[in-house]
Design brief:
This protein is an all-alpha fold. It contains 14 helices and four strands.
């Protein structure tokens, strides 16, 4: 009888051990931590082409949130003297007259490949943001790495434990791709949502015909072709693109700025010489210089301009003001998070 009990105990032990062995999970059953981000739902303005977004920097809620915070934070600057938003105010279409130099507005960056007035930088949005972080701001990365808040934000966005200038640039690029202006009165008109006044319609006719001849350089949906051109500002123009290329044929060429929100982005031209739209229209009407490098599209340069009447000037300015995008100027998702 005792022998039978021993055998039973032994068998029970073997069975129990076998069951315990089967209950131990295999290594592949152990939970693993996977870095997950939330895809950002980018709204492309009606009528705009699709935006090409690089595979190595997809838009995420975490990345855009981080980029927006960096855009408004002076921590980017080596001396904490400025942030991106110091020269780019939302209520002025992300441009501001700071009294020292004319800056280009920040809008529709996701479709650009060249930057700066003299066309001195070409590349991706990531490339130009790396330039901003490393050269323009000379960011001290230790300051970001020593910030508990930023370490957590970069971890969420990029799953990194040590923040690099590339990470900061990629976050800024993500936010910049959301800074899109495409719902002005003009956009609503071409999409059939509103009507223009008779004066605005007259200005539209001038704009898109040889009469005012604006459309050759500003006729795309972006109201710029992004191309450096010499628009006949001076008989002896500033170097412009020639400063970059060394080619005398590039003398006086500056990037064609967008006319979106042009009502709010004074002063005008690369050197900010014109304070009002009236001054700009007067220049194109009768102040153009016909130099050897003036752009061929400006066929009226030999006459000094397009010779508009006062009525035509006023109509053209009225139409230019239809490019103002109130939604863009008041979008809370583009405003300071602080």
């Amino acid at each position: 009888m005792r022998l039978i009990v021993y055998i039973f105990i032994a068998l029970f032990g073997v069975i129990s051990l076998s069951n315990c062995k089967r209950s131990i999970p295999e290594p592949t059953d152990y939970p693993t931590t996977i870095h997950q981000t939330t895809p950002y739902d980018l709204k492309i303005p009606l009528g705009f082409p699709e935006m090409v977004i690089p595979e190595n920097n997809p838009l995420t809620v975490e990345g855009v949130t981080l980029g927006r915070k960096l855009y408004y934070d002076r921590i980017l600057d080596k001396d904490s003297a400025r942030a991106c938003a110091s020269c780019h105010h939302q209520d002025q279409a992300f441009q501001i007259d700071n009294g020292t130099q004319q800056v280009l507005p920040h809008a529709n960056f996701g479709w650009m490949t060249n930057y700066m007035w003299n066309g001195g930088f070409n590349g991706t949005l990531e490339d130009v943001m790396i330039f901003e972080v490393e050269v323009f701001f000379e960011t001290n990365m230790d300051r970001l790495n020593n910030s508990k808040i930023y370490r957590e934000l970069f971890k969420k966005a990029f799953n990194v434990d040590s923040i690099t200038s590339k990470d900061a640039a990629f976050a800024l690029a993500q936010f910049a791709r959301t800074m899109n202006s495409g719902n002005s009165k003009f956009d609503q008109f071409i999409n059939g949502a509103v009507l223009l006044t008779q004066q605005e319609l007259q200005g539209q006719q001038l704009f898109f015909t040889e009469k005012a001849d604006c459309f050759h350089c500003h006729g795309t949906i972006f109201l710029t072709d992004f191309t450096p051109r010499n628009n006949g500002l001076d008989a002896n123009p500033d170097a412009g693109l020639m400063e970059v290329t060394g080619n005398p044929k590039d003398l006086g060429k500056f990037k064609t700025p967008t006319l979106r929100n042009i009502e709010l982005t004074a002063p005008y031209m690369h050197d900010g010489r014109f304070n009002t739209l009236e001054e700009v229209v007067d220049f194109y009407s009768g102040g153009v210089h016909n130099t050897s490098t003036v752009d061929p599209l400006m066929v009226y340069a030999h006459n000094g301009g397009v010779s508009l009447t006062q009525e035509e000037k006023e109509a053209l300015i009225a139409f230019l003001k239809t490019f103002t995008d109130q939604e863009f100027l008041n979008n809370p998702e583009l405003a300071s998070p602080f």
